[in-house]
């Protein structure tokens, strides 16, 4: 396994031209079709395993069939499901796409709460008293994506809109800070072990909402015992989270699109105003002019750690035109995100960068890479997005060809073999690369 702890050495080692020439067949229509079908077959295998493992096991009968979100977990993950919809929509006849989304609406509580994770019998894994239960609010995006691709009709939007609206309003009431930004949680945001504390500076974890045993369901107590003393899970409301704030802006934007499709002009205008207002707050508090990127906000200034949370303002459509070139330059920096395989979730020059041995501390993830690519397209950098997509796709294809499967995440430093902390047969959002990224950025 190749590993480059020295940033400059890794950056100079990689030759894009040589890599693309060597792996030119990965961009042929024949290979892309083969790779896509392999992803669908793996997903179907995981689907059957999921259904078999749950047969006769769910006395409540609360869950319908749902997309396999990867790994061996038989329950539901919210943001995983939203990303899985983005590849499964290209094979609606093979996968339970709308049923997967309906599970969350069926489990929604009267106050609007939908948990980020449910057990296989439909029990909320986490309590609404802690932001660990606050998932990236992406259900509205999934519904808009299906509708705008002609896969669902207006009647479905009319059916799900009240649930989506109630969820957004619950999140606004419970997770918004007095300064207008939103706070989250290391697990809740989906980037489990990504370090977001200030480096070499004092910070206070005592003001955070502490995760207690009573906030975890019965089936999660063993997991809770492993994380109970981790300071990451007391680091929440102290900070304005750039990703969760941008995701709430993005949710407002998607709700405006649903309202427009339903010809509810008043609601459409209100959601667009919320998107604009939240975008202004994020641009004021989370952008650093000198560093040219979006960051988390703590005690009156940004925390200058480059990570994938900063991709979301592009995706949410809140980056002003005059900042587009600056933000794109941060992604093009080989010392940070423009690695041999773009884009690591944590910048390569961060002191916690551990791409081979850790989970989110430098791994390249299909979900956040898709966000980055779409974000670049949103800010008018389509050509750059396609070039990055080619490199990422080719690395993923190389790993697929050498191992025969698709991986949860890959290393930004090498593509010769899988990294230590990554699950195989991950379709799951792993299928975003051979299906969605290939269709939307390579063709």
Automatic annotation (TrEMBL):
<dbReference type="GO" id="GO:0004573">
    <property type="term" value="F:Glc3Man9GlcNAc2 oligosaccharide glucosidase activity"/>
</dbReference>
<dbReference type="GO" id="GO:0009311">
    <property type="term" value="P:oligosaccharide metabolic process"/>
</dbReference>
<protein>
    <recommendedName>
        <fullName>Mannosylglycerate hydrolase MGH1-like glycoside hydrolase domain-containing protein</fullName>
    </recommendedName>
</protein>
<dbReference type="InterPro" id="IPR008928">
    <property type="entry name" value="6-hairpin_glycosidase_sf"/>
</dbReference>
<comment type="similarity">
    <text>Belongs to the glycosyl hydrolase 63 family.</text>
</comment>
<keyword id="KW-0326">Glycosidase</keyword>
<feature type="domain" description="Mannosylglycerate hydrolase MGH1-like glycoside hydrolase">
    <location>
        <begin position="78"/>
        <end position="413"/>
    </location>
</feature>
<dbReference type="GO" id="GO:0006487">
    <property type="term" value="P:protein N-linked glycosylation"/>
</dbReference>
<dbReference type="InterPro" id="IPR004888">
    <property type="entry name" value="Glycoside_hydrolase_63"/>
</dbReference>
<dbReference type="InterPro" id="IPR012341">
    <property type="entry name" value="6hp_glycosidase-like_sf"/>
</dbReference>
<dbReference type="Pfam" id="PF22422">
    <property type="entry name" value="MGH1-like_GH"/>
</dbReference>
<dbReference type="InterPro" id="IPR054491">
    <property type="entry name" value="MGH1-like_GH"/>
</dbReference>
<keyword id="KW-0378">Hydrolase</keyword>
């Amino acid at each position: 396994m190749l590993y480059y702890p020295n940033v400059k050495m890794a950056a100079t080692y990689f030759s894009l031209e040589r890599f693309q020439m060597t792996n030119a067949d990965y961009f042929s229509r024949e290979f892309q079709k083969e790779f896509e079908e392999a992803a669908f077959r793996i997903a179907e295998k995981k689907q059957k395993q999921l259904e078999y493992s749950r047969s006769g096991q769910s006395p409540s009968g609360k869950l319908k069939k749902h997309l396999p979100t990867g790994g061996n977990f038989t329950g539901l993950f919210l943001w995983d499901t939203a990303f899985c919809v983005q590849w499964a929509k290209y094979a609606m006849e093979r996968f339970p796409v709308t049923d997967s989304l309906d599970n969350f609406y069926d489990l929604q509580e009267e106050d609007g709460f939908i948990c980020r994770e449910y057990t296989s019998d439909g029990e909320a894994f986490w309590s609404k008293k802690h932001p660990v239960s606050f998932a990236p609010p992406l259900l509205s995006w999934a519904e808009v994506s299906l509708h705008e691709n002609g896969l669902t009709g207006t009647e479905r939007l009319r059916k799900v809109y009240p649930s989506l609206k109630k969820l957004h309003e619950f999140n606004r009431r419970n997770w918004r800070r007095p300064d207008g930004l939103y706070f989250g949680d290391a697990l809740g945001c989906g980037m489990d072990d990504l370090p977001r504390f200030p480096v070499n500076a004092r910070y206070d974890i005592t003001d955070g909402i502490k995760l207690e045993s009573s906030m975890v369901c019965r089936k999660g107590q063993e997991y809770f015992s492993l994380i109970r003393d981790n300071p990451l899970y007391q680091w929440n409301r102290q900070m304005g989270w750039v990703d969760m704030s941008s995701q709430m802006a993005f949710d407002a934007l998607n709700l405006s699109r649903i309202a427009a499709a339903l010809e509810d002009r008043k609601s459409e205008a209100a959601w667009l105003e919320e998107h604009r207002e939240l975008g202004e707050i994020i641009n004021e508090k989370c952008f650093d002019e000198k560093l040219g990127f979006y960051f988390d906000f703590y005690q009156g200034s940004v925390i200058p750690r480059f990570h994938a949370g900063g991709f979301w303002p592009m995706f949410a459509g809140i980056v002003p035109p005059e900042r587009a070139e600056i933000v794109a330059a941060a992604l093009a920096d080989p010392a940070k995100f423009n690695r041999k395989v773009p884009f690591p979730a944590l910048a390569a020059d961060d002191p916690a960068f551990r791409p081979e041995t850790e989970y989110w501390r430098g791994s390249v993830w299909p979900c956040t890479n898709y966000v980055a690519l779409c974000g670049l397209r949103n800010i008018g950098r389509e050509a750059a997005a396609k070039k990055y997509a080619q490199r990422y796709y080719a690395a993923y294809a190389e790993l697929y060809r050498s191992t025969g499967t698709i991986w949860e995440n890959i290393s930004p430093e090498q593509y010769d073999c899988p990294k230590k902390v990554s699950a195989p047969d991950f379709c799951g959002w792993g299928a975003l690369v051979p299906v969605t990224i290939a269709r939307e950025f390579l063709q």
